[in-house]
Amino acid sequence: MRKIKHSLQPRGAGRHMFHGIIAACFALFALLAAPVQAQSLFVGGDAAPDGPDASALLDETLTEEQANALISRLSDAQVREVLLAQMALKAQDAQEAAETEVSDFLYHATSGAFGSVTTAVERLPLLAQKQGEAFATFFGTFGASGLTTFLGLFAVTLVIGFAVEWAFRRMTGSLRALPLGEALTLRKTLESLFRRLLVDVLAVGVFVLTTWGVSLVIFPAEMQVYIGLIGWWLIGFPRMLWAVSRFCMAPQNPEYRIVYATNENARAIVFHSVCIAVLIGFSTVIVQFNALNGVPMGETRLGFWLNLAVHVYLAALAWRYRGAMSDMMRGGHAVTRGEEFVARAYPYFLIFVSVFTWYLVNIMVSYGNFELLQRAPHYVTLILASFAPAMDTGIRGLVRHLVPAMTGEGTVAERAYNATLRSYIRIGRIIVFGIVVIVLARVWGLDPAGLAAAGVGERLAARAIEFLIVLSFGYLLYEVASLYINRKLAAEFTASGYDPDNADFGGDGGGAGGSRLSTVLPLVLMVTRVAIVVVFLLLALGNVGVDTTPLLAGAGIVGLAIGFGAQKLVTDVVSGVFFLIDDAFRTGEYVEIDGTMGTVEKISIRSLQLRHHKGPVHTIPYGEVPKITNYSRDWVIMKLKFTVPFDTDPNKVKKIFKKIGQDLLATEELGPDFLQPFKSQGVFEIDEVGMVIRGKFMAKPGKQFMIRKEIFNRVKAEFEAAGIDFARREVRVALPDVAGRDELTDEDRAAITAAATQAAQEQAGAVPGGAPDDR
Question: How far apart are CA 15 and CA 24, in angstroms?
Fold first, then answer.
């Protein structure tokens, strides 16, 4: 039996003080989403039996034996009361701790940060005095002779370091050289630049290691730390940043430049990058120099002014070169509307990052957390934000090299290829974003595993990181699913030969549509995207402490209300599902629904849209579809009628039809569209005008109308060559009782013509026939 004990443990202010800062600044949304820790406990059931108050019997000094003896005398209701009392006390303690953490953070984020600035201003007169004391301490430690020895040995160390570096560069000169006059591909460009970057970084590393090794041999122990500071921060770090910026900008070799920029802007960016690195290095060296010589960090606030100079410098550069930075984000290519917005906003985002990190530094100083500041996390953040265009350009360049070749032909395949390209770019961006978040979490001391049992601020920081990671993984899955389905959709459209962008909606209609899978996949894509968004949004909210049970219950209630209040909608959705299961129609097919004809242009969960061949679009809910007549499946037979005079030889017409059918079958344009050639079916009927001879052919859906037009043209030409006329409907007017028929006036002739025309129209209207073909 464990001892029942309640105590308030003191909170450590050293190890956890800055985690609360990052919790709200680095992830402000977590403060809004975090659940309130306080809760109310209600005791139900019957009252406890008569006896002492169970909660009053608890004592912090109880031993295990005493606790066992006490519990053995208590009833079940009293034990339950004891446990509930302990839970209430712990909840109250957690609430008080949370309120204290939040109030502490609010103080340091406002008054504390402002006080950090005012303190720096107040201590400005002490800056020269304390700096003089630091130098005096340094001179006093080594003396004039020691300082002379230090400078001489330092010069020797630099000479040896640069000599070894020069020898290394001589040996690797062929690797550093950029080939000129060659046809450059992305792969060759990156390989050459990476080789040069690797050699430059290794050369700087050789210099730093050499100087450090020499200092261990020739310098006294108390001087070695200064060699390390100067060798890396004032010489090594600026040259390292110069190598990285030269890799991105290639100021002397524009043909190798992977970031879109003019030569002038490229050289300026490299120059200012080195200047910022020198300023950062000098800030680090002077602050640590003071700390080593009796002036602790924060006493003179020299670091405040040097840090302010770095942030102001970077913000001024972002403003000065805002147009060039936007061009770098565009990458010299056509961009989407969202990418254009990001490109325009990037310079201002960099200014915001500079100001925000400066504000974070002041909060850290307010907490007195100088240990974290020594790792320079704000400088790492600024460097990552500054190199965002290079990272984005590198992603787009790699994607254009790694993306698979376009599958199929036509606009659908081209659109799918472009969508694949964009998906690869977005996947690369989210991967880089995840890496940047992890790096920033490390340098700012935000490790979710290490913060799991920490205070409120630490928990918020951990939840913020988990929230970003969950959303990043969900977005990655969203893009992968879209990528797969879009490529599959393009392959299906290519295989079926149907191109929705080039479909002849203004033509005759009736053509074959896409495959069954190409019809269903757009709906699958939409449902998959919605499911991924909902699931991962709920997971992310759950990770930051939001109770998703009420959300799910509310969604269930809303769904039930929709089910009762929108039964017609449910009917439409269910009917659509069964129509798709039955494969009643596909995108691009020509169908008739209750007298409405058109090509299936678009389908959704509730309805489908038919595009009539004359232009109008009909939207029909699935629940209102009594039956569907599909004119675009497998094959179509078209029968044509030709009326010839009574004295025409049917066998002669049959030979003409057969010849036309064979000629059309041999043509490249129409031959592949025939399933059976055009041929005669003999005399179909005899009417008062002449003999009706019918011909027929079988063709692919949608091709019959073009074939019919060509058949009409060829039949007319062949009939003229064979001396066969088409029978014409005639109306004969007999005037047996009219004297002087040869001397009719124009008025008489016009009246007779009008009467004959009316009789012909009445006779034609009386002839039975099918529905008019308005195509």
Answer: 17
